[in-house]
Amino acid sequence: MSLSGGCQCGAVRFRVDGQSNGQGVGRASICHCRMCQKAFAGPFGALVTVKVADLTWTRGAPAHFQSSDQIRRGFCATCGTPLTFDWSADRIDLAVFAFDAPSAVAPVVQLARESRAPWIDHVADLPVRPSAGPPSEITSRQHPDRDT
Ligand SMILES: [Zn+2]
After folding, report:
1. Would 102 be classed as within a structural domain?
2. What Cα–Cα distance (Å) separates residue 70 from each residue in 9, 42, 73?
3. Residue 16 in 3-state DSSP?
4. 127 CA to centre of ligand 1 in angstroms
5. What is the pTM of this model?
6. What is the CATH number of the domain that holds 55?
7. 128: CA distance to ligand 1 center in Å?
8. Is 133 part of any domain?
9. 41-50, 110-119, 126-135, 137-146: which has the minimum mean pLDDT?
10. Residue 126 maps to a domain
11. How many domains does the chain have?
12. How much distance in Å is there from the Cα of 78 to the middle of ligand 1?
């Protein structure tokens, strides 16, 4: 079994093979720390660890920003999608929502909870605005959630 994913524009694509826990990925987490918030420009980073040996870049490769002396973060240089958190020689974290089927990589633990956005605990309580239906006048350039 393998899991695939990539950036929004499709210039960078990856595949995770291996059977380390039946699907090649470790325990996924969300991290509320300020560096993950900034790197993802979102309320938290959602990351999952895989073995570097199980990871193949099937199209392109990430560019990197050295976000600290310990960590570099990979992203698509064309569209900016965050892709990796590089912290080890033999393991690497991939951005959960970059996977084609992110629901298959559900987080099971949260980190740096003290840094969470103050509203994050109440997201499910927010009022829901009805969807306006499928947009008819835009042409998406987002890469589909599959290899092409
Ligand atoms: Zn891209």
Report:
1. yes
2. 28, 22, 10
3. strand
4. 33
5. 0.90
6. 2.170.150.70
7. 30
8. no
9. 126-135
10. no
11. 1
12. 5
Please indicate, yes or no, if residue 78 is contained in any of the structural domains: yes
If you measure from the C-alpha of residue 77 to the centroid of ligand 1, how many angstroms do you get, rounded to a whole number? 7
How far does the centroid of ligand 1 lie from the alpha carbon of residue 52, in Å? Answer: 21
pLDDT in tens, 106-122: 999 999 999 999 999 99
> Distance of CA 80 to CAs 50, 63, 89, 119, 120, Å?
22, 9, 24, 26, 24
Neighbours of ion ligand 1 (CB under 5 A): 7, 9, 11, 76, 78-79
Is the predicted pLDDT of residue 24 greater than 80, yes or no? no
Whether the Cβ atoms of residue 37 and residue 135 lie closer than 8 Å to each other = no
120: which 2 tokens? 């994050």
Q: Report how far ligand 1's centroid is from the alpha carbon of 118 (Å).
A: 31
Please check the confidence at residue 18 and state whether its pLDDT lies above 90.
no
